[in-house]
Amino acid sequence: MQLNPRQIEAFRTVMLTGSMTAAAERLKVTQPAVSRLIRDLEAELDLRLFRREGNRLVPNHEATILFADVDRFYVGLDRVAKTANELRHANVGALRIASIGALSLSCITHAISILHTAHPAVDISLESLNTPQTLDLVAGRHFDIGFAQAVAEFPGVRLTQMPSVETVCVMPSTYPIASRDFIEPRDLEGLPFISLGRNNPQRLKIDQLFDDLNVRRQMLLETSLAASAIGLVESGLGVSIVDPFTATYLSGRNVVTRPFKSNFCFDIVAVQPIHHQQSKLCKEFIQIMIDLFKKQASSREK
């Protein structure tokens, strides 16, 4: 049995409107055309679907049962159309994000909040990893996007440079250097210093800078997270050099943050799988992150 879609549409519209005339108006055809479509459908099904009671068109029991299936079909089509529209506007789907800890504890959460407000139905997951893990797992397509400390290249991924931002020096508010507008490497001569982990690319740059300038710090402690370094600074144990995002989000009342004047910045790249079409959600999230980096950079210039 080959049902005519136009007949099914006419049947559903008659059921919804309750009359041939109203159905004809909705379908933008004549009333006799609707009557003919219903008549042909009844002949095809070998069923009597409607009966007349005075001026009323009353569906038979068979029509009521048939309508339930027909309506489910149309609701399904409407759902497909709605989903397609939401996909066009990136309102549904999922976004798997990997990020280094310095960002996942600070601006990434802000960016996710912005994205969620615009697309509340999107399923978002965030995992905090180090840079090598982020690069490797994004290359393996375990994540849709990652944010890592800048590298020249890595197989299997496409890198997008985020705007550069200055690193900052965090120190107890009781330290004399806290009164300065900015901190230079020589200002930290002899001070107790809290370092980031030895495998942190930022740590390598910092150590190289002080070695080149022959500035000796009192190497007190090291920690893998900038957030932990700030906590140790807040306890009065020493000074540290960290990214500006973690400092902005986590510095307490007893911590002073100052720009650190040096020849390097806190450089971050967005990481995406190569040979993989960029989704609208990824593109939008990267732009949100770029805007946050630009905002951070401009705030330090004032």
From TrEMBL:
GO molecular function: DNA binding
All copies of domain HTH lysR-type, residue ranges: 3-60
The keyword Transcription belongs to this UniProt entry's keyword annotation: yes
Pfam family, any one: LysR_substrate
InterPro entries: LysR_HTH_N, LysR_subst-bd, WH-like_DNA-bd_sf, WH_DNA-bd_sf
Keywords, ordered alphabetically: DNA-binding, Transcription, Transcription regulation
Domain of life (superkingdom): Bacteria
Assigned protein family: Belongs to the LysR transcriptional regulatory family.
Name this protein carries in UniProt: DNA-binding transcriptional regulator, LysR family
Organism: Bosea robiniae
Lineage: Bacteria, Pseudomonadati, Pseudomonadota, Alphaproteobacteria, Hyphomicrobiales
